[in-house]
Amino acid sequence: MRILVLGGTAWLGRTFVQQALAAGHDVVCAARGSGVPDGARSLVVDRDDEGALTDVAAEHWDAVLDVSRTPEHVRRAARDLGRATDRFLLVSTVSVYASHAGRQAAEDAPVLAPSDDPAEYGAAKVACEHAVLDAVGPERAVLARAGLIGGPGDHTGRSGHWPWRFARAAETGGAVLVPAADDGSPSTHPTSVVDVRDLAAWLLRQATARDAAAASGPVNVTGEAVPLGALLATARAVALRATTAEHTAQDGVPTVPVSDAWLAEHDVAPWSGPRSLPLWLPDADWQGLSDRSNARARATGLTLRPLAETLADTLRWEAGQPEHPHGAGLTDVEHDALVSAARRR
Question: pTM for the full model?
Answer without folding.
Answer: 0.96
